[in-house]
Specification:
Elements (H helix, E strand, L loop, with lengths): L1 H12 L7 H21 L6 H15 L3 H17 L4 H10 L2 H17 L5 H13 L4 H22 L1
Helix pairs in contact: 2-3, 2-4, 2-5, 2-6, 2-7, 3-4, 3-6, 6-7, 6-8
């Protein structure tokens, strides 16, 4: 596991063109997973609904099998615990993702925040910081938030 983390950090420092397509994809997968895990962790409470939402968002975005998904989320948790900034994660996204893909990441972060039916100020602040680092405009940010909120309300009313 330490070797995987070492390779990830080395990949973040490598020039964008020097990575293989598989390494770039793996870097993006982990960066996305770390940001989603951070939303879950930032309020000090981790809820099963948030974990399910993270898995669903990653499955949808990257089409990974369940075992690879579980490994990715575990690696993201470990990486998030030692992360001291978000730039190293968002910079790879800014190089590789389209604007629409970056908006999808912000929307997925909102989905994680809404999953526990309790929006925390720390979650709001974190998502705002990440959106800024991803160069997501205010309008795009609000749109992503509203779509996630609507989806959360539909999900909670269907479960009742």
């Amino acid at each position: 596991m330490l070797q995987v983390l070492k390779e990830f950090f080395e990949s973040l420092m490598a020039p964008a063109g020097s990575q293989s397509p598989q390494a770039r994809e793996r870097t993006l997968q982990l960066a996305t997973a770390v940001l989603l895990v951070e939303v879950m962790r930032v309020d000090g409470n981790t809820h099963a609904a948030q974990q399910v939402t993270i898995m669903a968002a990653l499955r949808s975005r990257f089409a990974l099998p369940d075992d690879a998904l579980a490994q990715l989320v575990e690696q993201a948790r470990q990486t998030a615990e030692t992360a001291n900034d978000y730039y190293r994660f968002t910079s790879s996204m800014n190089e590789e993702f389209t604007q629409a893909q970056k908006i999808q990441v912000v929307e997925a972060m909102w989905q994680v925040a809404y999953a526990d039916a309790r929006l925390d100020e720390n979650e709001i602040s974190l998502i705002g910081k990440i959106a800024d680092l991803l160069y997501v405009t205010q309008g795009e940010y609000i749109g992503a938030k509203m779509r996630a909120k609507e989806a959360a309300q539909l999900g909670s009313s269907q479960g009742a």
